[in-house]
Amino acid sequence: MLMMSWNMIFHWIVLIGVSFAFGDKENVEPEEGGDKLLLDDAVNEKVERYVKLLEKKRDAIDKFLVENYSDFNHSDFTPEEYVSHPINAYMLMKRTSVMWQMAKPDILDTSSDELWKEIEEDMKNLQKQEL
């Protein structure tokens, strides 16, 4: 269930990014200035890099979930019941302190957020140039 929600979030982000990048190409008229085309290409390249960074995050999340939660049926226990058993409590602490720390840098990498801010700024500049 958690994996499905992460996948859904990732796909919505990618869909929004791609729609901003590629938009409605049928109604675009060629302009005489090459600056707009260069800016479009730069934005498209950034969006492609952004998508790759998001895919890297998605893969890291999927790997973490598969390695740590694929053999566990989450509907069998309430959280309180699960952690009341000493072995389950120990495994939860181990996942949190050791395994999560190994996956954390890839999952919480902020380079995609920074790149998204650049893309938004480029899109604003592109809209200003069109006016």
Structural summary, described in words:
The longest helix is centred in the middle third of the chain and has 36 residues, at 34-69. The mean pLDDT is 76. By secondary structure, the chain is mainly alpha-helical. 80% of the residues lie in helices and 0% in strands. 3% of the residues are buried. The chain is built from 5 helices and no strands.
Overview features:
single chain; 131 residues; mainly alpha; 0% strand
How does the SSE layout of this entry go?
Blueprint: H1 2-22, H2 34-69, H3 79-84, H4 86-107, H5 111-130
Helix pairs in contact: 1-2, 2-4, 2-5
Unreliable segments of 5+ consecutive residues:
none
Number of helices: 5
Largest sheet, strands/sense/barrel: none
Q: Name the structural class.
A: mainly alpha
Rough shape?
elongated
Average of pLDDT: 76
Give the H and E element order.
HHHHH
Distance between the termini: 45 Å
Which range best describes the helical content: under 10%, 10-25%, 25-40%, 40-55%, 55-70% or over 70%? Answer: over 70%
Number of strands: 0
Evaluate the radius of gyration.
21 Å
- Approximate strand percentage: under 5%
